Inverse folding.
């Protein structure tokens, strides 16, 4: 196998492998998407289904994707070119790079809102028990083109600045600090939230299953969420896999990441739902929950402003690892192809992302009336990436790992050349990746395409 584009930088420690990968998984998905999808899907019933979806779909794809990246030691496109030279498989990587641009475009938009709310919370602008105050602040911000772009570009500059440091000195070092900090802050907000009068109701909602709300749609949405949550199907985990140490235990690391990520989602639910019930609001209030309801809830508490600021700060912190991993996909491609230095690749990617981000950000102001396939740019980017490219990439990864790369090589790769005693785990993974996972993901894709 002719290996080209191999990098010299990578994660230096096994802890760094874990924090960087977990950092990619944790993000807006936990705090913004997960709570309201849980609300829609019958609380704990959704949790159970989501858990099954991650086991049957999320983990198998994640393991295969990281494995292929580590074997090839190259970026999202280079990996396919190394493993399957002269074939069209590299197109899977190219689609992934496009997905990285699409996701970052709307993701940085929302993160920009979060960052601006950190400042508003800290300066006392959101101190009101009336949700209308949060609502007014929110709509003033999204409807003001330059305001929204200012925050989005600031976020891009921050993430690009970290990436200039490289993989181990940039991504690894940052996530090693941010992940523990996130857990501490989240725990503090949870404790506060559990002291609210609505806590019992909030917990009951989160942990007592209501299976009557579970439909085929809910199950397919849970599988789709597993893709977005675990950052799989688009080359992010492939790129990170290429930075994995050769002695890192891939199945164990992915299982730990999946569990820790689930814990973050549950803690986010514990932080948010008691507050929602305390206020007599609907748990399915949608994404607006974060920006409109939460400020009002915190304002009614002693030390509310402090907790509100911590809440938005921890949301911002949670998004950084995810953005680093998204941004790194094109950076690794541009720098790895030998066309430019890493610094030039970061700058080129930042400019590209800023340009891509404009239509998404202006979807709420200047371009509010423009729609493509019945969607504004913000929703279109989300739809194309989450509903189409990620599942398609997941299917291709399963097919390649299970049917082309094959059992013997997978076994050698996932047992680190026979040094890990995990043959049984690998056998289960291999059966899933060949026969079960791709079929389930095809259903997700068909649902995304509205075939049924
Ligand atoms: N997993 C991230 C989240 O939950 C989003 C993400 C998707 C990151 C795809 C990288 C790649 O917020």
């Amino acid at each position: 196998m002719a290996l080209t584009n191999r990098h010299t930088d990578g994660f230096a420690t096994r802890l760094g492998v874990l924090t960087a990968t977990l950092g990619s998984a944790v993000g807006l998905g936990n705090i913004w998407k997960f709570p309201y999808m849980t609300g829609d899907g019958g609380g704990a019933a959704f949790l159970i289904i989501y858990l099954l979806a991650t086991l049957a779909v999320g983990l198998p794809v994640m393991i295969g994707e990281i494995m292929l990246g580590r074997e090839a030691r190259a970026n999202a496109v280079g990996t396919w070119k190394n493993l399957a030279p002269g074939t069209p498989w590299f197109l899977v990587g190219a689609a992934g790079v496009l997905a990285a641009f699409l996701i970052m475009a709307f993701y940085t938009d929302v993160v920009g809102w979060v960052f601006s709310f950190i400042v508003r919370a800290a300066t006392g602008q959101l101190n009101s028990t009336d949700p209308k105050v949060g609502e007014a602040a929110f709509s003033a911000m999204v409807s003001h083109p330059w305001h929204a772009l200012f925050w989005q570009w600031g976020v891009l500059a921050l993430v690009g600045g970290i990436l200039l440091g490289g993989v181990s000195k940039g991504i690894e070092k940052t996530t090693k600090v941010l992940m523990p900090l996130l857990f501490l802050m989240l725990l503090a907000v949870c404790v506060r939230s559990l002291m609210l009068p609505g806590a019992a109701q909030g917990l009951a909602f989160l942990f007592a299953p209501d299976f009557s709300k579970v439909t085929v749609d809910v199950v397919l949405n849970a599988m789709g969420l597993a893709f977005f949550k675990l950052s799989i199907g688009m080359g992010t985990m492939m790129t990170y896999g290429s930075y994995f140490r050769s002695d890192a235990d891939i199945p164990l690391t992915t299982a730990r990441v999946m569990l820790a990520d689930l814990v973050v989602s549950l803690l986010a639910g514990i932080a948010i739902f008691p507050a929602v019930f305390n206020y007599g609001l609907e748990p399915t209030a949608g994404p607006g929950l974060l920006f409109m309801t939460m400020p009002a809830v915190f304002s009614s508490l002693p030390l509310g402003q402090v907790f509100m600021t911590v809440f938005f700060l921890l949301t911002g912190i949670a998004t950084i690892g995810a953005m680093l991993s998204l941004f790194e996909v094109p950076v690794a491609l541009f720098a790895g192809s030998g066309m430019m230095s890493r610094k030039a690749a970061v700058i080129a990617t930042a400019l590209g992302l800023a340009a891509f981000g404009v239509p998404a950000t202006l979807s709420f102001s200047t371009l509010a009336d423009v729609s493509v396939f019945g969607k504004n740019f913000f929703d279109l980017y989300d739809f194309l990436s989450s509903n189409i490219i990620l599942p398609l990439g997941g299917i291709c990864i399963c097919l390649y790992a299970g049917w082309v790369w094959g059992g013997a090589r997978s076994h050698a790769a996932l047992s680190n050349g026979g040094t890990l005693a995990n043959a049984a785990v690998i056998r289960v993974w291999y059966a899933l990746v060949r026969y079960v996972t791709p079929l389930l993901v095809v259903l997700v894709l068909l649902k995304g395409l509205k075939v049924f």
The chain has one domain: 14-448.
